[in-house]
Each structure stands twice: as C-alpha cells, then as structure tokens.
Amino acid sequence: MISAATLSDLSVLELAEPRPRGFVRRDVAPARPAPEPAPGPSPLLQIRGVTLEYRTPQRVVRATHRIDLDIHAADRFVLLGPSGCGKSTLLKAAAGFITPVEGSITLAGAPVRAPGPDRIVVFQEFDQLPPWKTVAQNVAFPLRAAKALGRREAQERARHYIDKVGLTPFADSYPHQLSGGMKQRVAIARALAMQPRVLMMDEPFAALDALTRRRMQEELLALWDEARFTLLFVTHSIEEALVVGNRVALLSPHPGRVRAEFNSHAFDLSSIGSEAFQAAVQRLHARLFDTDAPAEAAR
Ligand code: ADP
Ligand code: MG
User: Fold this and answer.
1) pTM of the full predicted structure?
2) CATH number of the domain to which 236 belongs
C-alpha cells in the first residue's frame, strides 16, 4: 500500500498521455519512479482507447478521443471536464447506449454491447420518474421489469432503499409532490435497489441549489460508506469531483481526452475551506482551463 496521492502530488501525477497499461494505481507511489507493474485486482470496468462519435448527414462530431480508464470495484470514479468534452457521451457508452467507433469497453472482462441492469444511470433531470407512479412504485418497477424479483420481494427491497434515502414518509407520494432533491433521492434509491455492478451518475446534483447539493453529496457518500458500490460520477464542478471521488480523471475540452488522473480520497466534505483543498481546486482550475488564473469559480 502506498501513501495517498493528494492534490499536492498532482503535478507528479499529471499524464501527458493516458497512463500506461498495467499501471496499478494502488501500488504506485506518485513521488517515486513508476515501479514494475504489479499484479493487482483487474479493473471492474475497463475503457480502452475509446473514441466516440456522432454522425449526422452533414458531419461527424468526435466526442471523445482514445480514452483509457480503469475503474475498480468500490471506486468512486469521477469524470471531470468542461461542458461539451464528452463526459455524458462516455457515460452513455459505458452504459451501453452508444457503441465506440474505436476501442473497447468491458465489464468484468465481458464486452459492453447494450444497456443492462448491471449498469444503471442517474441523470441530472428531475423528470426521470414516471409521474403516474408513486415513489414506492417507481423504485419497485424496474426490479419487476428486469424480472429480478417477485412482487413482494420487489416491494420489500424498494422499501429498504426508500428508507436509506430518507423518504419513507413519502413512499406513497407522486413525483410532482416532491422537491428536486427528493426526486433525485428517489432516482438514487431506484438505481441502488437494482444493485448494479456500476452505478453511473451524470451531473445528478447540478440542477439543485447549493445547500441541497451539499446535502446530497453527503448522503451519497454515507450510502457508499455503507454499501461500497462502484460509482462512475460525471461532473464539471472541481469541488464536487474532489469531494465525491476517490479517483478523478480530468478530461480535456472537445474532443475529450484524459489529460490527468489522480487520487482524491484525501478530501471529503469537511475538507472544503481548508487550505489544501483550496489549493487543489486552484491547481485543477488552472489545469482544466490551461491558465494560471486563480479559481474564482469552482463549480
Ligand atoms: P458533456 O457531457 O461533457 O457536456 P457531451 O458528451 O454531452 O459533453 O457532448 C460531447 C460533444 O458531442 C459535444 O460537442 C456535443 O455537442 C456533441 N454531441 C452530444 N450529443 C450529440 C448528438 N446527439 N448529436 C451530435 N452531437 C452531439
Ligand atoms: Mg453532459
């Protein structure tokens, strides 16, 4: 085991090229020369040389260019990058909605070819929940649809996860009776209830007010502490990336490439405001926007 690579090590960890294959992050001390790749647990989700494009009759839009990423079980892996750099596209590819034009995506060694109940995505939009279903029905429905569980088991599991996100008093409410934060809690409960191998979240808190957003981050981390699920989380907020992630991939602007990768588990919500945290935010801001300007806005 190595000492944690904090953002003070960021300059050392910055990779002009994606990290080499065989790089085993937990065995590499950032301040030392790279040792021989040690055998370690193989990544749960492996993204290799993935280029993603949108083809319209008029033109081809390249969203990402040759992305290499290793996401290990129980990682809270964050994709951080400016708007339009291909974060959502990459997430959709990992979820199986988009096929790479180049490269491969594998989950536990098996190629990802289509969406499946082992990869659930929570989106930013508050309208992900069918409005005619109650909270309890919304959470139980996919369990039934995926034929994962019988009616009673589905209801029980739904109740369990609704309780986890603190919505038991609202189990029989409809989405329009809930605040934005509560709707996102339902979406998270619904996703966790499926017990996916990877939970994917695409800027899930971006449309919430700052206080609610902070509380949701806290709750997500508490849920992770309890269940240790594997999280692939997209954000354009540096602060959010540092708080939520244990590992962050910084993507360059359009088309997205991996510009740097680093460990961020040294930070959590209590770090915000500390000197080390602010310094990390500033350094990342400069890295993200290729300037030396101080970070006047971290979100
Ligand atoms: P991000 O999530 O990082 O903001 P996206 O993955 O949404 O970025 O988009 C990456 C690039 O792909 C952008 O240039 C965007 O305009 C383009 N793009 C996204 N969706 C489509 C689409 N359906 N058709 C054509 N281009 C698209
Ligand atoms: Mg997006």
Assistant:
1) 0.86
2) 3.40.50.300
